[in-house]
Amino acid sequence: MRGIARLARELGVSTATVSRALNGNPNVNKATREKVLEAAQRLGYAANQAARSLAQGVTHSVGFMIELDHESTTSTDYFFMGVVEGMQAVLAAHGLDLLVLPCAKSQDNFTFLQRFVSRGAVDGMILAETRRIDRRIELMQSSGIPFVTLGRSDSGGGYSWIDLDFEGVMATAVDRLVGQGHRRIAVTVPSNDANYGTIFAQAYQDSLARHGLAFDEELVFPTRRREDDGGSLVDGLLDRPDPATAIILFYEVTAIGIYRRLAERGLTPGRDLSIIGFRGEESVRFLAPQVTCFHMSLPDLGTAAARALLAQMPLTAPAFSSGVLQRRVPLSLVPGESDGPPASGVR
Amino acid sequence: MRGIARLARELGVSTATVSRALNGNPNVNKATREKVLEAAQRLGYAANQAARSLAQGVTHSVGFMIELDHESTTSTDYFFMGVVEGMQAVLAAHGLDLLVLPCAKSQDNFTFLQRFVSRGAVDGMILAETRRIDRRIELMQSSGIPFVTLGRSDSGGGYSWIDLDFEGVMATAVDRLVGQGHRRIAVTVPSNDANYGTIFAQAYQDSLARHGLAFDEELVFPTRRREDDGGSLVDGLLDRPDPATAIILFYEVTAIGIYRRLAERGLTPGRDLSIIGFRGEESVRFLAPQVTCFHMSLPDLGTAAARALLAQMPLTAPAFSSGVLQRRVPLSLVPGESDGPPASGVR
DNA sequence: CTGAAAGCGCTTACAG
DNA sequence: CTGAAAGCGCTTACAG
């Protein structure tokens, strides 16, 4: 005999009583409860997860599906762990375990998710790196399992998501540069297929349009999350009939390569080329001149996602404001010295 | 009626047959199997995880416990995701799910682990950041659940671990510096309580002793995983009666701060101070002069850990060479220009 | 090759 | 406040 039955026998009570005592059911005599709790503690007993889940119909766990591609996992810009920190704290406070579920880039992410969902392995799910068209969202909706995505998608319609305010960031950056006198503003966009790339690029176009500036496809540079992906675009930016005088970076780490290439050409960031980075990062903080960028708290992003999920889960929903939550997290500008009026003085 | 029962009824077979077909039991008529498989596929049916685990006594999942502290999760030096990449690939190939289990620094890591273990939530466990004395190891041993640690510990005795060859790295670095003529060699060590700090420091002492060099406690600098933690130690290193002429860095990112401070003082890395970094990192790769460092593959480390675990798990052990595996993964030196003969020419 | 039935270790109405 | 018993959804000897 093992598990709860063994504990019950040793204590001379029924398994029902042990179960109630352990689960905080109020209908248990105080002395009995203490006896049970003490014994469980002493013997290191905890209810078997599988049996518990089967009986209760809930797992008390939440999955966070992330995709592993070598480019990002080994990047200095990898930021999901900071987000996990916030998620974990909120979920733990509500008695939920966070299971980070890594899906290899090489396997189909739909099938991967489907397995966890159809097996009932989690009570809720957080998805990252949403695509513009993302079948995972419809999968989650038809599964009935509460979920929230980190990032928007055109799929699914009215579901909960948390995303960064790319539009706000871009508007602020372009406003600032235009205010400094720039007219030829370039941009880098991620070279992967996540939806944020599309959103960032669209916000760029919209912001230019707001200022009556022409959109030039040749000023849009897809880059990877790599320091050296910045350097190679500098020449293309400057050596043209109408050179760009400013650039907005999706991956701020690429500033490192840009600074190097500028230095090689005897040029100075902020004077010969204005640079604004998207997400202020540790690895870039030590560049001189300091990169003008946008700041955000990664744990706060995780916290927001976890809350949006809890608001949908049966056990926790009552404590949260109801319904679907769709929120863009604003970022604040951190002025540096990497931008300023164009050297040519064009205005 | 739901789950397997519903599927069975629809197909006009017993649940036993459905179960066998789905689990690849050979004792199933081919036509029957195909019928079942087709229906399961069509209806998106997958066996309930909890029921399956309860009946089988195994979860087909492996946990990787990592500790979240804000310093490391937001560091550009965070490297566990690269390791996860390798783990996940190996485990998936053997039909095992990898659950990354984040434990907040603020909660007790022993209790955290105990919950997952005593509940039977995983079939195997990988532990990171082992301490010199680490009660988790005895916990795992008494649980009977296969486990492997990323990092050594004095606890537990003969269990499986994978660790980096800190001794080899240190010996190579010191040999190289001594060969260049250095006699006063400083070192940075991590300021946390993980065992690798102790090992690194001990290897430093041993390597000095091998060359008959005196150990000077004042040349040992605890640092965090932060770029700016390098700069502050430069002055202490140089402004003393017998200045250090070389330094070996545990966290290579701190080289960034060191380079900056040296530049401020009009000094040159590799000439006025020789620098060797431990783990070659993306964020440091663009420093000039290039930092001499040691290279390793993060996914390979994960692969090794996963294999060491599989070798202990009942279902997979037969395919692996048996027994306890304790392995130090070697790193290879990548020469840069950040070290060389001391400027004073002392020999 | 297939089915009826027991059993995995819990939780929870139900009855007292 | 407590216990006997059913039930959660599977898997797997056992019998045929």
Automatic annotation (TrEMBL), chains A, B:
Listed name of the protein: LacI family transcriptional regulator
Entry keyword annotation includes Transcription: yes
Domain of life: Bacteria
Cross-referenced CDD domains: HTH_LacI, PBP1_AglR-like
Annotated SUPFAM superfamilies: lambda repressor-like DNA-binding domains (SSF47413), Periplasmic binding protein-like I (SSF53822)
Keywords, alphabetical: DNA-binding, Transcription, Transcription regulation
Gene3D superfamilies to which the protein is assigned, alphabetical: 3.40.50.2300, lambda repressor-like DNA-binding domains
PROSITE patterns: HTH_LACI_2
Classification via SMART domains: HTH_LACI
Molecular-function GO terms, alphabetical: DNA-binding transcription factor activity; transcription cis-regulatory region binding
Membrane spanning stretches: none
DNA-binding listed as a keyword: yes
HTH lacI-type domain mapped to chain residues: 1-56
